[in-house]
Amino acid sequence: MAPADGPGAPPGWTDSHCHLQHLTELGARRAVLERAGAAGVTTMVCVGTDAQSSRAAIEIATEESGRGVYATAGLHPHDASEGTEALARLLEEEAASPSSRLVAVGECGLDYHYDNSPRQVQREAFAAQVRLAHSYGLTLVIHTREAFEDTFAILRTEGAPARTVFHCFTGGPAEAERCLETGAYLSFSGIVTFKNAEEVRQAARLCPPDRVLIETDSPYLAPVPYRGRENEPCYVVRVGEQLAAEKEMAVAELAGLTAGNAASAFGLG
Predict the structure, then answer these.
(1) Binning pLDDT at 50, 70 and 90, where does residue 166 land?
(2) Interval 200-230: pLDDT, tens
(3) Within 10 Å of residue 44's Cβ, how many Cβ atoms?
(4) CA-to-CA distance for 103 and 137, rounded, in angstroms?
(5) Cβ–Cβ under 8 Å, residues 50 and 81
(6) Kind plus residue range of the DSSP H or E element containing 107
(7) Which residue has the higher pLDDT, 108 or 7?
(8) What sign has the CA pseudo-torsion 97, 42, 266, 141?
């Protein structure tokens, strides 16, 4: 069952963005997955941020396929200086595997808040990964922070893939409208529960029902009232409860809606 102080949920939640590979102990991961299942989380997308973590995500998705885990492979803007060559080789390997659980390229994009890699290097790595998503017919998962203009410019130049997700959306209504104009999905994290995130909630309210996703970005960004703890997929229920309130929907309806959207966004069978 769910932890005594954790969220309860109807079945069928999807956490569209988590980092299970950051749990180094197998036992810890299994406990996290047990709590997710008990909370009604039936699908999780485990996201890579460089070649090593992407390979780990794919391994976890393969090992935990019975728990509905899928994987992405990408190079985070923080690590853009590493270059995309190793990632490209990994994608080529996975493309040859008929049983691959890989569903997306990313997370990739631009982060001008920390500038852990030079901005021009970030832009080049992002553009290269947009091209890789096109080449393999995969979903593109975008991380953008304080960099919407350059993000949109690169998408205009390279073309947004048919399935594109703005993960952990942190903009307001204006940025949301522009993302939606590209045909993308908006994925909302625990930030939507934060007191100072009214603009994010406004964006959530205007997002069309067929373009909204929910995520934890665990182990980061635990939602209220779990802030200060390590985040995990079972807390996606709390994100969903907040989003349901913002959109004036029943919680069970929101769960089914976002699960269906995730299946479409990532091409899940």
Answers:
(1) very high
(2) 999 999 999 999 999 999 999 999 999 999 9
(3) 31
(4) 9
(5) no
(6) strand 102-111
(7) 108
(8) negative
Backbone angles phi, psi at 185, to 5 degrees: -95, 150
CB neighbour list of residue 177: distance below 8 Å, 6 or more residues apart: 206
Instruction: Give the Cα separation of 10 and 68 in Å (integer).
Output: 16
Tokens standing for 115?
A: 């500038």
CB 6 within 8 A of CB 36: no
What pLDDT sits at residue 263? 98
- DSSP letter for each residue of 136-194: HT-EEEEEEES-HHHHHHHHHHH---SSEEE-S----HHHHHHHHHTT-EEEE-GGGGS
Residue 104's H or E segment, with its range, is: strand 102-111
| The pLDDT of residue 11 is above 60 | no
User: What's the pLDDT at 25?
Assistant: 76
Token couple for 109: 């994009």
- Is the pLDDT at 9 greater than 60? The verdict is no
Q: Is 3 a residue whose pLDDT tops 50? A: no
Q: Give me the residue label for tokens 């809606």.
A: 257
Nearest Cα residue to 88 out of 132, 154, 124: 132
> C-alpha angle 193/200/154, rounded to 5°?
135
SS3 content of the chain, % helix, strand, coil (to 5): 50, 15, 35
Q: How many CB atoms lie within 10 A of CB 93?
A: 14
pTM here? 0.95
